[in-house]
Amino acid sequence: MLLRRCYSATRWEAWELRQRLLKEVAGREDEASPEDEVEFVQGDLLEADISEVTHIYLSSLCFEESMLFAAAQKVQQEARNLRGLASLQPLPYLRKVGELMLPMSWTRPRGLGTMAYLYET
Ligand SMILES: C[S@@+](CC[C@H](N)C(=O)[O-])C[C@H]1O[C@@H](n2cnc3c(N)ncnc32)[C@H](O)[C@@H]1O
């Protein structure tokens, strides 16, 4: 599984990782069609049905500790089809499989990134 590795990625490496994940998960190398692969839901994560979710990105940089615990517990208990989760803050309960330094809009001027913590259930 690709997410077992620890990454310190440049933008290009992140793009390559995305392509490799696409190939592994969807069996193809081209960009995923949003209509085929992604459903956008506006709502409370803690109320959402995440039983069919395969990948989660938690933009959790400003989440309070109680929200981090609640989100991680929900993922552990309900995300039966999860392949990988990335969070901008460390999470309890889940098995950490790597860390990935990712460029963010707010880090671009300094050329750095923000650490993303990678998990499996
Ligand atoms: C740092 S902002 C990220 C905004 C945007 N998604 C991005 O990545 O640029 C964190 C977001 O988490 C959302 N959020 C906080 N608690 C949430 C919850 N229980 N369910 C869904 N979203 C939540 C907030 O509304 C906020 O938009």
Summarize the structure.
The chain is α/β, with parallel strands linked by helices and 121 residues long. The chain has helices at residues 11-26, 34-37, 65-78, and strands at residues 7-8, 55-58, 84-87, 95-102, 114-120.
Structure description:
InterPro entries: SAM-dependent_MTases_sf (IPR029063). There is one protein chain. The protein has 121 residues and is of the alpha/beta class. The protein has three helices and five strands, in the order E-H-H-E-H-E-E-E. It has one domain. Bound molecules: S-adenosylmethionine.
Keywords:
121 residues; alpha/beta; five-stranded mixed β-sheet; disordered N terminus; SAM-dependent_MTases_sf
Topology:
Blueprint: E1 7-8, H1 11-26, H2 34-37, E2 55-58, H3 65-78, E3 84-87, E4 95-102, E5 114-120
The chain binds S-adenosylmethionine.
Residues 44-46, 59, 61-62, 67 line the site of S-adenosylmethionine.
- What is the share of helical residues? 25-40%
**Main sheet summary:** 5 strands, mixed
Mean pLDDT: 82
Question: What hetero molecules are in the model?
Answer: S-adenosylmethionine
Outline, from the CA principal axes?
globular
The poorly predicted ranges are 1-9
Q: What is the H/E string?
A: EHHEHEEE
